[in-house]
Amino acid sequence: MGSTPGDPRDELFALTSAFRQALSRQHRAGAWAAPGTATARSVSDTGSVSGSVSVSVSDSDSDSDPISVSRTLSVIRAELGDCQRCKLCNTRNKIVFGVGPEPAALMFVGEAPGADEDRLGDPFVGKAGELLDKMIEAMGWSRGDVYIANVLKCRPPNNRNPEPDEVAACRPFLDAQIQAVRPRIMVTLGRPAANVVLGKDAPISSLRGRFHEHRGVKVMPTFHPAYLLREPDRKRDTWSDLKQVIAELERLGVVSPRPAKA
Question: In DSSP terms, which residues pair with 99 in a beta bridge?
């Protein structure tokens, strides 16, 4: 049935066309999202990633964020481009975007690339990455079954903590990755990643061991593999956290490809 003069459908079509044209102009100009979205959020809560480093997150974003329209990982990577959005572009070797399937039931989020990751362009490929692979395998999965990313896509000099402008520049891309991957559960590795994802300012010891939520996705914070290499006694606590993830995935009807360790 065709539309009639004054039909609201004509107005909706015009508005949609205008919005698409605006987005196209934004992309050609090098902007990844419409004004007022993830690049210009209002502030309601302030969460610190470590010490005095903080990132602002609005609670209202979880319900009405325009970036909730999911894009594929390849589109997000193209939008990231040869990123020059913060000062890390001057010191990095390679952008470390993330690896894994789309979608993936399980997603791991770390803090930032290290020296090996900066050299190779993939997340968690050094000694900490080898330990993470073992952790994933103990859960009954493999590296190829899950999605792995970091909050920052570029290595901070000397592996220092992320700074607020760096987190702000990368956060929209992490949010977009989460929406593209659509994980049933996210495991954040270390305090900075947990605080950024959850919008909190808390030590990892007070966050781990129980589920939190981010935009409808269950989140289990636990220790970073690099920390476990320095403090192997905390591996028992980490395995306790991961066993909760295994049990919750099973409760959600997600069965691991292989049997998990007891």
Answer: 148
Place of tokens 């591996």: 235
Pairing of strands 45-50, 106-110: unpaired
Round to whole Å and give the CA distance between 170 and 252.
30
User: Is residue 107 within 8 Å of 181, Cβ to Cβ?
Assistant: yes
CA distances (Å), origin 162, targets 79, 117, 165, 193? 22, 16, 8, 10
Per residue in 209-234, pLDDT (tens digit) is 999 999 999 999 999 999 999 999 99
- Do β-strands 185-189 and 217-222 pair in parallel, antiparallel, or remain unpaired? parallel
Note the Cα 19 to chain centre separation in Å. Answer: 27
Distance from the Cα of residue 90 to its chain's centroid:
23
Cis peptide before 123 (omega within 30 of 0): no
Residues contacting residue 50 through CB under 8 Å, at least 6 positions apart: 161, 162, 191, 192, 195
- pTM of this structure: 0.75
